[in-house]
């Protein structure tokens, strides 16, 4: 009998075990047991072929419609071309020099076919796919799958779904179930009416009916939600036990002076969130708060007032920004908002003020040395910087608050390195302009309290968004350039955003990757340098056009942004370096080239750079993708709503949910196998309540050996470090 920590080599042999490890990351019996089917098909049920995405590795069930052997022209060999159908759409299977397969791949037969979706002569195809015929002529598979649902596993080119299925069959028959510990406490499982673990695992892999499958998935969703929420509850409990210096702003200090000069009233949302933050700052344990808000909702103002509150207590605050452009923009805007309050200790500065410093990697030696001195002796109460803040040379007199802007751009190590510069744990405020659905916040940021800003300040203008189908309607693209000319004629400015830079380094990387990665018919993404040259010589000739991208020298980037902000440039052709934080109220129109190459949330962020003043904003999403494609549907969704939270749900649905405990929540591999952070809100919320209750009663989980084992499995070395660093 086998146990879960045994290597797969003993179960399936060395060759298959190596393929499972290399292609799917499955090493032990436990890994295979928890590699659940992605979906199920019933005998006779065909896959919808018109929904297959390019470059996706798929397993489809279809019926063979046509088989043809086509000799190569001018050379030896042939291509066996098999057309399969679901009754509506078609897919071509191409086998090279394998004409012998024609005798079994005959029209009318039905089977499962697995491969990567590519394009040849503008027709979608699977090249040299694996397959298993499923009709009555194949007694083996028919016996294997008769009378039940057929599981379709997450697979790879080297390990198709049906081979995985056979390995799982062997495992289920050899496991010592007495040694498989249940992570759910018995009272919780019985109280929630959930299946025993053994029944759930057998039901997920070999359901006899849809009811079996649903019951198994319901139970295993609870396992994933509960184990994750227990890990986060333990983290929150540990945070609450840490000591911190309470930071209560004094009357008549720099915060009061700043508020007295504000030319506007804070929104209700800003006031509410500020009250939550100030309440946290007054505690004797560190604040751990996530501030998420719509583009342009005033997060920077809220963050600045929190920093000023800490300065009033004699402490210092550091804001960590992901790029030099954003750090410089924050520094400029904060100094402008504070006026002489940002020049404390300087000639002409306010007596109530403090010095607001900037620290980036490209600063000259004298300026850098002065900033380091101001931080070490406490003259600078606020510093805004990039990764340069993390370097060993940077020392603070009394670091009381760390503000992390656009958290998703940073590794946890970077955030932790800055917090470690304080004698006692500083308060932490994480800000993001990428709206996050509630259940995602409870998982990805489950150790942080969450505040939401969804109310825009008065005076902000609406942004109209439209998709420009460049191939179908080239006159629409011509009209986009006319709109830019019209806006510039009114005294406004414009952005043109491209996915690529187009310099020598760009070309070198593209050659190394091999192009085009998306399929044979697709051209490379448009580049900033190429588009800027074409516009300057063509439709925008005579306008002041400049470029901005991440590989420019820092001084050059800053010079371009200063001139654009001052209105001395008409059009900025840029990469996503302008995605967050850039604030030019006079910019009213943005044209995003190859918009389908960007994610939904990224497009929403970019769009937020216009309409920041009193004039209406316009965002044009240019794409050559056909109208029925998933990419165009994504763009239509962005054009159809300004609700960032709704778009974040769409974005998450399309990207998959990623590793909710990993740093790069990229959707490549997820620690969530059956739980959906979008669809299972009730389960996640209930699991959080149960986890908090259990951790309060048994912080070390001494009475829960099964749960401890599941936690160890979930929190491998990397994820444990992630949680420890907060």
Automatic annotation (TrEMBL):
SUPFAM superfamilies (UniProt xref): Nucleic acid-binding proteins, P-loop containing nucleoside triphosphate hydrolases
PROSITE patterns: HELICASE_ATP_BIND_1, HELICASE_CTER
Coiled coil: none
GO MF annotation terms: DNA helicase activity; hydrolase activity
Domain Helicase C-terminal stretches: 476-653
CDD domains: DEXHc_RecG, RecG_wedge_OBF
Keywords: ATP-binding, DNA damage, DNA recombination, DNA repair, DNA-binding, Helicase, Hydrolase, Isomerase, Nucleotide-binding
EC identifiers of the protein: 5.6.2.4
Domain Helicase ATP-binding: start-end pairs: 280-453
Matches recorded under InterPro entries: ATP-dep_DNA_helicase_RecG, DEAD/DEAH_box_helicase_dom, Helicase_ATP-bd, Helicase_C-like, NA-bd_OB-fold, P-loop_NTPase, RecG/Mfd, RecG_dom3_C
Catalytic activity: Couples ATP hydrolysis with the unwinding of duplex DNA by translocating in the 3'-5' direction; ATP + H2O = ADP + phosphate + H(+)
PANTHER family, alphabetized: ATP-DEPENDENT DNA HELICASE HOMOLOG RECG, CHLOROPLASTIC
Family according to the record: Belongs to the helicase family. RecG subfamily.
Its biological purpose: Plays a critical role in recombination and DNA repair. Helps process Holliday junction intermediates to mature products by catalyzing branch migration. Has replication fork regression activity, unwinds stalled or blocked replication forks to make a HJ that can be resolved. Has a DNA unwinding activity characteristic of a DNA helicase with 3'-5' polarity.
Protein name: ATP-dependent DNA helicase RecG
Originating organism: Streptacidiphilus alkalitolerans
